[in-house]
User: Fold these one by one.
Assistant:
Number 1:
Amino acid sequence: RVSADARLRLALLLCQQGKSRDADSILAGLGYRARLNDMALTYRNSGASELTAKEENEEAAQQQAQKRVFAMDGAVPSEVLRRLRVALEPPSAPFWAEHLYPEVDFFSYLFDLKSSPTNLVEELILHLKPLVVQRFPEVAQAHSAEWWMHNKGSEQWRGHGLHYDCNEHASTVSTPGNGVAYPAVSAVVYLSEPPPSSGAAGPTLVLDQILGGPAAPEGYLVAPRRGRMLLFDGRLLHGVLPGTACSLDVVDKSGSPAESTTLFATHSSEHGHSVGHRVHDLRRLTLMVGWWTEPVERRPGPEAVGGRAVLESNMTVPASGDTSWSWPSTLRPMVAAALGATAASRAPAPAPVSRVRPAWQAVTAAE
């Protein structure tokens, strides 16, 4: 008997191939009543409109959307980008190994925006803040930036489930509204650029949907590009769409082209290589930042207990000289003047944001 998980994967593949009726038949049998719009799931050829385009007299609606979601290219200075990739791209790098990534649960660090940066990530956050304020003026009042990262390889085809960024330590009693505290603005900073032709790096999807509110009328897609920054209202539902079936140009050990095969990215190994062959590097390296204007409690730094890290959200970065952790030494901050010089080499520019409307559609069972 075919498992529910296998049938879900088949339905996803059918949706991505434009065979939505066949997919809906499977989903209806599993009890689903709604799913993401075809334009979202077939993002490679969806025809979703860019927010920068003026069409159908929707300029006012587009301007309103840009107040919730905006992306820019060239946000990360080239030298900062290079150093972060050197320190973080290898899956065995100290930052990942010492945090037991990806087996560990979610963890993050909290940076006081009025303090001096102790590492390259915090230095980058201070550099990015004026760019964020240009689009979201409320971030000028932000007191802290919560940051965390992901480094995904062949498993990235699954995407990243839809979720809300929130303060996991906030009291549900004292917090107004729905009892959840959110960052004023959330940011995704793309530090790598998986080959667009691979189909293994799905776009980030942001839905115009808040917790407890109605289903999103529309969604927004942003593709991962090295140095790009995506900004959105921190209350919005978001995630990463699954990758599509893709064509990988497989190369044998001698460097000679082998056959071109259509397969899921999971057919390659964790390091982006298939057994006996070399294929495109499919790692997806991202930095996430939550800009906090609401109160947020700083937690103690990580602890190493019995050879394992004890982690949580909003942690304090290990103090200088703490020999329990070596990763801070791989992310030493740059000299401020050097960072300013490399930042001036390229001015940020707006990046494409594709609009999907409607965001959801009903699952229709075959008659």
Number 2:
Amino acid sequence: RPPRGGIAGTAVVAVAATSLLWLLPQTCEAWLQRVEGDDPLNPNCVQRGDDYADLRDVKIHAIVYAGRRQYLEILNAYLERDLRRNGGVLDTVLFAMVKYTHDDLRYLAQLRARNVGSYIIPQIEGGGWDVVWRLAEDPDAYYLKIDDDVVYIAEGAIAELVREKRRGRFLFVSANVVNHGIISAVHQELAQLRWLAAPAMPATDWKYKGDIILDPRFRIEHTFYSDCIWRRWDCAALAHENLLHRLEDGTSCAFDFGVYDFHAHGYGTMSDGLPGGRSIDWNDNFFAFKGEDFSDIDWDGVAMDDEAEMSTKHPQRRNQHAAALGRALVAHFSFSVQER
């Protein structure tokens, strides 16, 4: 497999994400279900087969904020695996081209030619962020919003998100996102992150030091603009390395926390601390929704700040909650500030 390394700066995050190439669909195991054993921090992960029979007549589409090729080359393998025609549940993938070069566009055109009818590059009018969300035009269909720098999607994750959304308990259902402003803190609070130390030499494994992180430099604050995770590349690298470590020893189901309610304590409970600043309750890197959920949305608000609208304002106006599903494990490569 590709080596995992400890070089400086964002390159550590890049090495961790590149290592996920080893885990691309041709080598993925079946969906892993958590089964409690003697050790609550290291549960048994049992393979569970799934033919998605309950979703055969359900329309499911993905909307990808695209399209940086360096990330899409990784994400694409998971998307193709999960196409309905390949045995998955996705009917189509709509690539909303919001950040790209001519090379990125040529690459995506090649992917579309390989997945005729399943991969769609829709025409998008100029404007705010609302033009992307308006692609969810079928009120009866289920949609997955996916950032293009998602570098791992566990098998069955998309199906599980749609199933939870269909239960009608939550307005939006987020995946269990590794390297996430809020969920990473939950991972640490539930002792799901192992204490791994970066190596002194590049291209060598991170050293396991224990099940509990005792290094005070890696305390993940429970807020969307945290220092450790949102701002720091080394915290992002630690999160990715933990995923790789657990995938390697077959305990990735330890990340399954059941369901985490983002709005259990209300709405807009966190702020960036700036006058007239921003407040969001969760990062919308990867989540499920239904077309009809936008029937009364504030499109002007979406155009200005879609993440604030989706994570806080729209659920509050509807008096509905959003939640993360523990069994739907994915990995988000980086926030832009981490890459600096």
Number 3:
Amino acid sequence: WSVDCFYVSKIQLFEVSIHKTRRSFRSYSEVPSSSIPNDIERVLSKEYATFFSPMFKSYYSNNVEFIDPLNTLVGIDKYQNNVDMLAGRNSFGSFLFKDASISLHNIKRLGKNQLQTRWTLQVTVKSIPWQPRPRFSGVSIYTLNEDGIIIRQEDYWDSINLINGKYSKVSITEAIGDFLGQLQKESGAEMSAPELPHELLRRGKFYDVRRYPATVCIQTNYDKRPEGYDRLASYIGGSNAENKRIDYLSPTIMQITGNSKDGSRKKVMRWPVLFAFPDSKSSSSMNINNVLPEPTIPRLSFVECPEMVVAVSRFEVAATEPVVKGYTLRLQQDLASDGIEVKSTKKDVAQVLTVAQYDALFSLNKRRNEVWLELADGHPWSRN
């Protein structure tokens, strides 16, 4: 599974449900305008799931305004031409783009005549040899007239419009710079293993937010990092009851927990080896006993980790403890400025530092390190 298509199965299942239920509804072109407000959320959900194929034009004004950081368009035909271009459904778009997708995270009513959708959009630019995949997350504000018809859609990107927790307009220069910056060819260090699939919820200016599935990890306590790597690698390489190699996923996740009472610290290193299917919030869909052989060396154990939503800040310098503390503090401040709370630690815990490393242990190129903070319940992407 690739990271970008982890939740494709959700969309496919949703499309199946659309086809199954479509027979029980009248054609949307036959729905009187007075009934539209009652099912506008359903219509938007279907449009996002299918990338506006079809686009239900009867729910839009002929003179609908579409405004995003790069474009201002007026008219339903121009609106549809824009989404068809991103989807590669017209001649110009088929030359530039492929594999466009948009994940709808939630829909919220803002008032009598306004709705907000929260989403993540990704598209591959196939006209560039290395085929970069720009990603945008943000919100769309829909304004409806008295008949429940959409007359305006205004989009804001988390990466440029979100300032201290509020969305504000910025210059088109910033939008162009944000888009072009994602087209650059990256040269990073060799990854230690395929990346653990996840759902991108926010691509922000200073941090990302991701939803990770429930996992089973092989873990060990350690004092020095090479010690932890060696022990985990031994299990993966065959130091197990079946003497076989086990597939695992990056990143290497390390947690350092400090005790505020006695000053002691506990260090744990883990590698993901199994992950749950989409929409499974626990590891119940993974049968550990039938899949994973027991370790034959000491200080190794399996741990089941539930689904979690984490904020992530990336850095490329060596992941020493002072560096990790500094980036964690900065991430906490950035989240606080956007009104997002993190899970609190226990009273006797001074701090829990979580660092993720993706690269092979002795890679020489630009490295990918991250600090993680799990979000508290009630965040903007909560499913409750």
Number 4:
Amino acid sequence: MASGFHCVAHTLSKYKLTVMIKDLFIKLMKDKERCIRHAVMENVAIILKALHYSSPAADMLFAQLQPALMDYEVSTKHEWRNLQTFYLQLEKGAHYFTKEQIHTQLIPMVKRQLFEGPVPLKQTCAHVIVVLARKLACYAQQQYLFRSIANDLGRGKSFWHRMTYLDVCIELMNVFSRKFFKEHCLETAMNLSYDVVPNVRMKFCTLIPKLKTILSPSKDVQSIARLKERSSFLTLDKDVDVLAAAKLAVDQIHELELELARDNKYSNLARDDSADKTREAQELEWLEKEKEAEKNKRRIEIIGKPSTNASGAPRDRKKRFDLSSKKSTKRY
């Protein structure tokens, strides 16, 4: 029953979903048997879609499902394959939750696995957290999130943390605009080319072709020169694996330069340029809305604040002077 629950939920009418399915789904999520909970979670995104259709109020829906989802995450913390399925399903069903719920509940839960989870789970969570951050549609929150990740992972003491940060960078370049990545993540990623651990340097070599595509020859002259210098330096690395990865990256850069020279508007690079312009315009729109909201907030604070006189005491706005009541004392 648990394995086919999503098929039943997808075919029922809105009324039956409200009456029959919602409570039964929560009961299955709280079942004592792990295999039943795992079977339900394998297709939870489809179930969330059906439940959202029956109850469009996403905040109320999440309030009812939140305890069951949190309990499942805690109960499977030592089963990384089931957690991997759980996070991927949450990524697919994230648009049924509010932005506040994503920011306060889902992102912290996924971010924790970037530090504590095994390597395959870290790679999955790197993808999921970037997608969830995009759904926030809030430039300030996105900026704070990735700057904190850059500080905690990219400059972390553990080399596994630094390698995980490079996984986040790969996903970030695929989901966010090039401008966003260059402003918040490029510097930290470039510094990892000097890392003392060969595995981190080898991981950086896999980023070199992608970094080449996001740098503009007219705007990022210094970054391009630095990337070229680091690529050449890594081709002389003492570690054999780093040396091989660096040479492969340099060959891929040459192929990219040839493709750029052809200037084919139907190439993959041209499609990437078009998608990047759309992402950048969307991020600029979010930023302008936040600035406007901040201005309105300050304006309201200024209007609501009582005015004061020179001594600092509040003025009595109700006090009026009736000049006509004053009698002139001047005599002729």
